[in-house]
């Protein structure tokens, strides 16, 4: 409450099941950059990220060379963390390899929840965990596939953002909608 950008994100995107590979990749990258920072910081820079990272086109990002990476590290509109920028490039490559193996990244990631969102029943959002046993499992599997900056906390946030888990409070108007 109180920030129109944050409220719009909550009211229209957060927790809505996402099955589109491009959107799943975008959220994975944004969650990667969010690690150690607040989500509102990333939201405020989201359009800059889209522009800087070719609208999150993983096919293009996988081809980035050092010159492109260096230019990203000079871009004041994004979070200029060298490890996270490099991870974005390697994650695009790992993402495409996972797509090739499973037919789509969506199939791969949603198979962890049998294609259906986990619906929690939190009275207070502060009761929601930062990680779960399942986010631990997914994190380990992603790391095994070559993904970087995909710790359990990042993965649980990704699960929440993409609707794999519904962590809206039970009294939230979005709880039953998503």
UniProtKB/TrEMBL annotation:
Q: What is its EC number?
A: 3.2.2.20
Record keyword DNA repair present: yes
Q: Which reaction does it catalyse?
A: Hydrolysis of alkylated DNA, releasing 3-methyladenine
What UniProt keywords apply to this chain's record, in alphabetical order?
DNA damage, DNA repair, Hydrolase, Metal-binding, Zinc
**EC class:** hydrolase
Gene3D superfamilies with a match to the protein in the record: Hypothetical protein, domain 2
Role of this protein: Hydrolysis of the deoxyribose N-glycosidic bond to excise 3-methyladenine from the damaged DNA polymer formed by alkylation lesions.
What name appears for this protein in its UniProt entry?
A: DNA-3-methyladenine glycosylase I
> What organism, scientifically named, is this protein from?
Flagellimonas marinaquae
